[in-house]
Design goal:
Blueprint: E1 28-30, E2 36-38, H1 42-61, H2 64-80, H3 82-89, H4 93-113, H5 117-121, E3 123-125, E4 131-139, E5 142-146, H6 153-164, E6 168-172, H7 179-189, E7 198-201, H8 205-214, E8 220-222, H9 229-239, E9 245-247, H10 255-259, E10 262-270
Parallel strand pairs: 5-6, 5-8, 6-7, 8-9
Antiparallel strand pairs: 1-2, 3-4, 4-10
Helix pairs in contact: 1-8, 2-4, 3-4, 4-6, 8-9
InterPro entries: Ald_DH/histidinol_DH, Ald_DH_N, Aldehyde_DH_dom
GO molecular function: oxidoreductase activity
Keywords: Oxidoreductase
C-alpha cells in the first residue's frame, strides 16, 4: 500500500436549518484560485427563512439565561479553533489572531446582555388610574442580516445581537471572503444552538438581499453590510411593504443592534384589587 494519499479538500456549503446543503441551483463562485463557495439562490433564501421561522418559537421561548449560555458556548468553541480561523482569514498572522480574539470577545459581550436587556429596556409606566402598566421588550421574529465585509468579526457582530434577544436569523456572508462564515457555521452547529436559529448563505449580495428584503415572513433587516447606495435604497423600499424594522447605520457594538429588532409589549393590570 502506498504511503502517499490524497488530501481531503473541504467543500464549503450553505448552512440552513442546522444542516450543510449545497445550493439547490448547484452553482458556486470563485473565492480564491483554488477555493469556491456555494452561490445561494432565492430558493435557498426562502428555505432559510422557513427554517428560521420554524426555530423561532423554541428559541424565543427559551430563558434569556439559557440563550446567554449558548452564546458563551459559541465563544468557547470559537476560541478552541483560533488557529484554524486565523489560517482561513489569511494576511499577517498577528492581525488574523486579533480578529479572532475580537470575535470571541464580542460573543462574550453580547452573551452577558442576554438577561439584562429586558431590565434596561423594560419599564413601569405611571398612569392616572387604578392600574399597573408594564412595558417589556420582545423579539420581532426572523431577521435577515447582510453581514459587513469583515469575514468573521463582521458576521459575529451582526448575528450575535440579533439572536441573543430571541430572534432567529438568516445571514448573507461577506461576498468577497465567505469561507470563514461557513467555518463559523460549523462552530454554531456544535455549540448547542438549535438548528434554524442561525442560517448562513453565501453568494452575491445583490441577488440575495432584495429577495430577503421583500420576503413577507421576514420581520427585520440589517443592511450594515450593504455598501452600494442603490441596493440599500431598493432593499429599504422593499422592506417597507410589511413594515420591517431596518438597521442601516453601522455599529461596532452596542445596545442599538439588539433593540432595533425588539418590540415593546405593554400590559395593563388592575392595581389594589
Amino acid at each position: 500500500m502506498s504511503d502517499r494519499r490524497v488530501t481531503v479538500r473541504k467543500t464549503y456549503k450553505l448552512f440552513i436549518g442546522g444542516a450543510f446543503p449545497r445550493s439547490e441551483s448547484g452553482r458556486t463562485y470563485t473565492v480564491t484560485r483554488t477555493e469556491h463557495a456555494a452561490r445561494a439562490s432565492r430558493k435557498d433564501a426562502r428555505d432559510a427563512v422557513v427554517a428560521a421561522r420554524k426555530a423561532f418559537p423554541g428559541w424565543s421561548g427559551a430563558t434569556a439565561y439559557n440563550r446567554g449560555q449558548i452564546l458563551y458556548r459559541v465563544a468557547e468553541m470559537l476560541e478552541g479553533r483560533r488557529a484554524q480561523f486565523a489560517d482561513e482569514l489569511g494576511g499577517p498572522r498577528k492581525q488574523a489572531l486579533e480578529q479572532v480574539d475580537a470575535a470571541v470577545d464580542r460573543l462574550v459581550w453580547y452573551a452577558g446582555w442576554s438577561d439584562k436587556i429586558a431590565a434596561v429596556r423594560g419599564t413601569t409606566n405611571p398612569v392616572a388610574g387604578p392600574y399597573l402598566n408594564l412595558s417589556s421588550p420582545e423579539p420581532v421574529g426572523v431577521v435577515a442580516v447582510v453581514a459587513p465585509a469583515e469575514p468573521l468579526l463582521g458576521l459575529v457582530s451582526a448575528v450575535a445581537p440579533v439572536i441573543v434577544t430571541g430572534n432567529t436569523c438568516v445571514a448573507v456572508a461577506s461576498e468577497r471572503a465567505p469561507l470563514p462564515a461557513i467555518t463559523f457555521a460549523e462552530v454554531l452547529a456544535t455549540s448547542d444552538l438549535p438548528g434554524g436559529v442561525v442560517n448562513v448563505l453565501t453568494g452575491h449580495q445583490a441577488e440575495l438581499a432584495p429577495w430577503l428584503a421583500a420576503h413577507m415572513d421576514v420581520n427585520g433587516l440589517d443592511l450594515t453590510g450593504v455598501t452600494a447606495p442603490e441596493l440599500a435604497l431598493a432593499c429599504e423600499q422593499a422592506a417597507a411593504e410589511n413594515f420591517k424594522r431596518v438597521l442601516t447605520a453601522a455599529q461596532d457594538r452596542g445596545t442599538r443592534r439588539m433593540t432595533t429588532f425588539m418590540e415593546t409589549k405593554t400590559v395593563w393590570h388592575p392595581a389594589g384589587i
